[in-house]
Amino acid sequence: MEYFAPRTIAEALICMRRWKGKSALIAGGTNIIPSMRAGELKQEILVDLRRLKSLSYIKEEKHRIRIGGLSTISELVSSKVIQRWVPLLFDAAQQLGNPLVRNRATIGGNLADASPAADTAVPLLALEAIVVIQGRKERQVPIDQFFVGPNRTVLKRDEMIKEVIIPKLSHKVRMAYFKLGLRNSMAVSVVNLALLMEMEKNICKRVRIGFGAVAPKPIRAYQIEKMLENNEVTGKLLETCCKAISKEVHPISDIRASKEYRIEMASVLLKRGLREL
To answer: Which domain holds residue 97?
Structure first.
């Protein structure tokens, strides 16, 4: 296997175009290194992005937060900007793996891996983030259009994640993140939920719901959002929303949990989140 460590984005893109389909990007390496050890990696060339310091940043602007694709999960956790403006992402980042994993894993890598249970993807769905992709040209993709299936995204073979853009929200918006694992937060999620709501008296003016590990990709619960918005949040409405979960989610049974258990827990977490907010 060949190895390249470009110093600029331009050099990295040249490597990717030259060995299109034969190269794999590595940043934190928390997913690709285990694949290499297991002999599962098909690519012949590794392009190491860790020298691209220009992609490691968290910037606050007037109406948005910009996060470089190589920002580590630990940097998200320690960022005052993230804690203040996007506590939903802060809570999810805190629960991603252990300290060693958080020190290495990057937000770009976590999204590009496209696990159905990706810890950062679920809150970013609720936050309506934008993924900025760099290739021959730069393009922006709403995160709900970024994932296309298990471990599959819209990224082309000669593209990388440049940054993630998160719109700033009013401090009136309440947020909550829940992760259910078999053992603790270090485990892969059985179900994870990101929820944000803006209430006016007892009327839900705005709600965004992201789910992970309950479908082939991280998803928004659009139908339940429509049921809640501009309505009084009553116990009866909560029950109706929770019953509708089975039409929104499409989980599988695996070694971690059965399909039925995931549907039930998605309903439990949603009810808990809506009551708390």
So the answer is: 2-167
